[in-house]
């Protein structure tokens, strides 16, 4: 497994999380630890992780609630750890968005295998960028919106045109062509670089905010242009290619 794989281990028992972090490190996994939900959220704001190993029984916000939040906002894969072996508890965890479930005490070698399995499945199901059709027609539908790349126009319900600035259009095009994929600010800058106006790191945030006001029913609670805290943004929508 590549040494670029980053794992966040969240467990309130120091005698579990520290030895576990050390063990995972032997398999070239870059491990960060946190003792509770606050520490987990702080870590997620600072860094991007490929997978979270999350204890269910935590002080304060419990692991199931945190798992649901991760599933809704970040979509980072989660393996839950619990001392409860009841089937109902495992089902509850999976329903909250967990990708796998392990009962304490467990064999660390099995956890490594589970981590590899989850990441392997994720790579196999990772959505590919939406490629433009061969004839050059580039119109994308997502939700109730249509983005016409050729005309550089956005249309809403009933064919209503929505005015976009040049930077807003380029940013939306990049997100539409990579749906359901978290794109960091750096990646977004790479995708829209070389255009007629300079775009800077933090200006991405401003452009996203402007787009939300035009696309979302409630820009304070976006459902379409989501934030992956500490990582970037994603367009949470099924994108389809449309004929002219």
UniProtKB/TrEMBL annotation:
Residues 6-119 form the Response regulatory domain. GO terms for molecular function: phosphorelay response regulator activity; transcription cis-regulatory region binding. Residues 135-237 form the OmpR/PhoB-type domain. It is found in: Cytoplasm. Pfam families: Response_reg, Trans_reg_C. One of its GO terms (biological process) is regulation of DNA-templated transcription. GO terms for cellular component: cytosol; protein-DNA complex. The keyword Nucleus does not apply. CDD domains: REC_OmpR, trans_reg_C. Keywords: Cytoplasm, DNA-binding, Phosphoprotein, Transcription, Transcription regulation, Two-component regulatory system. Residues 135-237 bind DNA. The keyword Transcription regulation applies. SUPFAM superfamilies: C-terminal effector domain of the bipartite response regulators, CheY-like. Its main location: cytoplasm. It comes from the Bacteria. The modification 4-aspartylphosphate is found at residue 55. This is Two-component system OmpR family response regulator. It comes from Azoarcus indigens.
